[in-house]
Amino acid sequence: MIEFLYTNAWGAFIVLLAFQIPFLIVFFHIVNKKAFADSAPSKTKPEKYSAYRHGWTALVLVAFVVVNGASIKYMPTIVEANTAGDKNIKDVQVTALSWAFQFSESEFKVGETVRFKAKSTDTVHSFALHHPDGHLLFTMMLIPGAGTEGTLVHTFTEPGEYTVRCLEYCGIAHHAMKNTFTVN
Amino acid sequence: MSAAIKIIDKVPFFGGMFRVESNELNPVNAWPSLMAMTSFVWFAIAAILGVSMPAIQFMELGSNWYYQNITLHGAAMAFPFVFQLMAAMSLHRAGACLGKRADDIFVSLFYIFMNVGALLLTVAVLLGFHVTYTVMFPLPVVGVMTGQWSMFTLVLGFTGIALVLTSMIFIYPIKILRMSFFGQIDSTLQVAERSMKDPGMIGMVMGALVLLVTGTPLMIVAGSLLLHLYGIFPAEWIGWAADAVVFEFVFYIFAHNLMEAMAIMIIGAVYSTLPLCTADGSRKLYSDKIAILALWILLITSVTSFFHHFFTMYPALPSTFAYHGNIMSFATGVGGALTIFTILATIWKHGIIPTPALFLILGGFVMYILDGVSAIVISNVAWNFKLHGTMWAGGHAMVVLIAISALWMGILYYHYPLMTNRTIDDSTARSCIKYFFISYIGLLYTFLAAGAAGMPRRNGAWESDWYIFGAFMLIFGVMLLYAFVLYFLSLRKSTALEY
Ligand SMILES: [Cu+2]
C-alpha cells in the first residue's frame, strides 16, 4: 500500500483526499452550526481553545513528518544513490531538442534497471516517461546550459509500450515531441 | 469629477457595476472602482479564451489556436484580472483604513502600465508570440531563431511584459508602503480606522515587500535583455542575463512569490473582514497574535519554497535545495493550519451572520485551503517527479487564482456599499456563490485527476484518453463563467442605500 502511494501518481491523489475530506467536514460543520443552527457566542472555556490549538498543530506536524518521512526512499535522488556501484545498470543517453528525442537505446527488458542521462540542446524541455496505462512515471526538466547532465534511475517492471513526452512547453510543435520505449 | 469616474460612466455593461457618485470619498473609491471594473473586463476575455481551449480540442481547430489562447488566457487571468483586482481592493482598503488617498500618480501609473502592458502583450500573442504566461525562457529567443514568430513580436511582447512587471514589482508595492508608513492622515477618508498592528494591514505590507524584494532581480535580468533588444545594451553586456538557468531562477523566485504575496495579502484581508461579520458584534478575531504568527510563518517559509519549481531539474538543482524546498513547502502548511484554526475558532467563539459577502469569503477560503493541499502534495520530491508538468501542476496554478479571486470578490461585496453607495442584489449573489463553489470543486478535482492520470498541461494535441477530462473542464468552466455572470448581475442590480 505505501509502495503504491509513492510510486503511482494516483497515490498522491489518495493522500490529497485524506487531507481534504476531514477538513471539509469539520469546516462545513462549524460554519453551518454557527451561521444557521446557533449563531450565539459559544460558552467554550478559553483553556479548551488552547487545548484544541495544540492538538491540531501537533496533528498537522505529525502528519507532515510521516507523509514526507515515508517518501524519502522513493525520491529519485535516493533511488539513484542506492544503485551506486551496481554493475548491471544500463546507461542510456537522452537528448531533447525542438521537437524530437534522440535515445541511445529504446528497447528494454522487464526487470532491467536503466540510468537515463538526459540533456536539452536548445530550449527548456523535459524527458517524461509514461506508463503504458497513461500515468506519469517520472519527468525530468531539462534546462539548456544547466551544466550537469540530468540522471535518473528507473527499473522497468512491466512489459508494454511506454510513451516518452516533453512536458515543458517548448513552442508551436511542443505536442509533437513524443516517442516510445518498448519493454519486453 | 475624477477621470476614473468619467471612464467608468462611458463603459457599457461593466461600467454599470461600478458607478461611483462624486463625493468626498472619491480619493479612495474612484480609482479602485475603475481598476476593479477593468479587471473584470479582462476576466471576461480570459474566461472565454479558457473555455475555448477544450472546445478547440473537441472541434479539432489545431494546436496553433490552442497555444495562442493558452498564452492569452494565462497572462490575462494572472495579471490584469487577479492582480489588478487585488490591487484595487487593497488600495481601497488601505485608503479607507489608513486615511490616505488612492488616486495619486502612483495609482494612475499602475493602471496605465498594467493595462497598456497587457494590451501590448495581447497584440504580440495575436501576431504569433505563443510562449505561455510563464515565458519558458529561452523559448522567446529560440522561437525567433527558428522562425516560429518574428523579432518584432518578441520586442513587443517583452515590452508589454516589462510594463506589467513594473506595475506589479515597483509601482504597486511602493504605493502600498507609502500609504502604510508615510504621509499625512486625511480623517475624512479614514472611514474604518485601523492601525499597523492589525493583521490585515500587516499582511498587506508583507505582500508588498515580497513583491518588491523578490521581483527586483527579475526586473534587472529582464530589463537588461529588453535594453539589448532595443539596441541599447551590446550583446557582451547581457550574456549573464541570457543564461537560461539565471533567467528561470529569477523568474520563478518572483512568480512563486507573486502567488504567495497575493495569498498573504488575502489572508490578511480575511483576518480583518471576518470579525466585522461576527454575530455577537464583538468585531474580534479569536486571537490577533496567532493570526499574526500564522502570517509570519507563511511569509518566512514561502520565500524559499520556490525550489519546488525545480525539483525535477535534479541534479542540476543540488538535492539539498530540493529537500529544503520540500520542507519549506510543507511548513507553509503549518501557517495554513494556524490560519484554519484562527478562522474556525473565531466563527465558533463569536458566531457569524450569513451574508453573501462573508459566504463568498469563507467559500474562497475553503477553495484556497483545498488548493493548498494539492500544492503541498506536489511539493513532495517523490510525488513531484510523477506530477510536475501534468494537469495537476497546471490545475493548481489555475485553482489558486480562482480561490484568490473568490476571496477578493467577497471582500468587494463587503466594501461595495462604501465604494458605490449601493447594496448588492442579495438573491443573485447567493446563486453566484452556489455556482462558483460547485464549479470550483468540479474544476479542482478534474484537473488533479487528469494530472494523476498523466495528462500533460499545455499540450495542444489531446489523446483520446484525455477527452473525458476535457469534457468536465468544459462543463465546469462554463459553469464558473455563469457564476461570474451572476456576480456581475448582482452588482448591476444593486440598489441605492437608504439612510
Ligand atoms: Cu520540448
Give the helix/strand layout:
The complex is a heterodimer of chains A (about 180) and B (about 500).
Chain A: H1 2-7, H2 9-37, H3 46-69, H4 76-82, E1 90-97, E2 100-103, E3 107-108, E4 113-120, E5 125-130, E6 136-142, E7 150-155, E8 160-165, E9 178-183
Parallel strand pairs in A: 1-4, 3-9
Antiparallel strand pairs in A: 1-2, 4-7, 5-6, 5-8, 8-9
Chain B: H1 3-10, H2 26-58, H3 63-98, H4 105-126, H5 139-145, H6 151-181, H7 199-229, H8 235-238, H9 244-273, H10 288-304, H11 319-350, H12 356-378, H13 381-387, H14 391-420, E1 422-423, H15 426-452, H16 467-492, E2 495-496
Antiparallel strand pairs in B: 1-2
Helix pairs in contact in B: 1-2, 2-3, 2-16, 3-4, 3-6, 3-14, 4-6, 6-7, 7-9, 7-10, 9-10, 9-14, 10-11, 11-12, 12-14, 12-15, 14-15, 15-16
Copper (II) ion binds next to loops of chain A.
Description of the structure:
Chain A has 2 domains: 2-74, no CATH class; 84-183, Immunoglobulin-like (Sandwich). Chain A has 4 helices and 9 strands. Chain A has helices at 2-7, 9-37, 46-69, 76-82, and strands spanning 90-97, 100-103, 107-108, 113-120, 125-130, 136-142, 150-155, 160-165, 178-183. In chain A, the strands form 2 sheets. A 5-stranded mixed β-sheet of chain A has the order 3-9-8-5-6, with no helix packed on it. Chain A has a 4-stranded mixed β-sheet with strand order 2-1-4-7. The radius of gyration of chain A is 23 Å and the shape is elongated. In chain A, 32% of the residues are buried. Chain B has 499 residues and is mostly helical. Chain B contains 16 helices and 2 strands. Chain B has helices at 3-10, 26-58, 63-98, 105-126, 139-145, 151-181, 199-229, 235-238, 244-273, 288-304, 319-350, 356-378, 381-387, 391-420, 426-452, 467-492, and strands at 422-423, 495-496. A two-stranded antiparallel sheet of chain B has the order 1-2. The interface between A and B is large, with 79 and 85 residues. Bound molecules: copper (II) ion. Residues 125, 166, 168, 170, 174, 177 of chain A line the site of copper (II) ion (CU). Copper (II) ion binds at residues 125, 166, 168, 170, 174, 177 of chain A.
